[in-house]
Amino acid sequence: MLGNFQRNSCLRMSVVQLWSTRKLNEILIKTKDIVQGLGFELLYADTDSVFLKKDRGALEDFEYVKEILSREADLPISMEHHYKFLMLLPLEADVKMEASKHYFGITHANGLIARGIEIRRHDAPNFIKEFQTELLYTLFDCKDSAEVLSIRYENALLLVTSTIDKIMTGEIQIKDLVVSKLLRQDLTKYRSLFPHVSAALQLTEAGKSLIRGDIIQYIYTDAHHSNPLCRVTALELVRQEALGYDKEKYREMLQEATKTVLGYFGFDRTVYGDTIILSITASATLSITGPFAASILFFS
Fold first, then answer.
1. Which of 10, 147, 271, 286 is the S-S candidate for 81 at Cβ 3.0 to 4.6 Å?
2. How many CB atoms lie within 10 A of CB 78?
3. Residues lower than pLDDT 70 in the chain
């Protein structure tokens, strides 16, 4: 089941990763038998995660299954999150698979939990992280999935439009446009002029010494320039009054962050121009109607 918006609980179990793959498989098989015997549907499982669903379930049901699993596995388990909405995102390699490390959700305490998306990436500019956070709250800060599809969806659409307007009119602050990348090897060992490598070369030309492990910060100024060295400007060389950032490049980055959240509803960045093109597919409407689910995470 792809991209479920449901009420969820999340449990974390310790020391599992200290065991062999065979032992882990035995635990997962045993877990599967237990949870299905208790009336839960197994949505996803791997070596450290199990996602469950139970129609008309309650928080007490998840507390109960936690106690059963703790006793049967002889491991301590504690409740980590109780989700109001949770969306498991498909792996790009196979749209029929889902990844426990690629999801986002809103808890009943109104906390945002996310893994594997832009707001968790160290190289994403601040304005992208802030936008995506606001987009998630705009979409999911509501009572049920029906409200997501009606009121909240339209509000999310307006947010995307207004943020793109800010990009194209030059309202984004320079400090919020900065991209940060780690210099993973000495400059002389790079064979391609990646953006952060170009920025690093600019800095060395200006007299700064750089070594492997340094963080390179830069702004996109002309991402499609024929000369890679002219596509970005190192942050330390930016003169605020003279810099013109690449509006199209940052709009592309915003489109990608939007697709992460709204792609399941039909958002396609390849057809996204000055007008937002979003649609809700029939499969999305059908798959978000389930009432409850749980996410159980095992950890060391």
1. 10
2. 10
3. 1-21, 46-49, 78, 91-100, 240-242, 268-300
Is 271 within 8 Å of 277 (Cβ atoms)?
yes
Q: Which residues contact 124 (CB under 8 A, 6 or more apart)?
A: 118, 179, 253, 257
**265, 3 contact by CB (below 8 A):** no
CATH for 178-244 (3.30.1490.180, 3.40.50.150, 3.40.1820.20, 3.30.420.40): 3.40.1820.20
Strand 179-182's sheet: what is its strand order? 179-182, 215-220, 232-234
pLDDT digit string, tens, across residues 135-150: 999 998 888 788 888 8
Using one digit for the tens of pLDDT, what is the confidence trace for 196-235?
999 999 999 999 999 999 999 999 999 999 999 999 999 9
Continuous H helices in the chain: 21-37, 59-73, 126-140, 145-147, 153-168, 195-205, 247-262, 282-287
Q: CA 46, CA 25: separation in Å to the nearest integer? A: 9
Q: Where are the domains of the chain?
A: 8-168+252-298, 178-244
**Which pTM was predicted?**
0.79
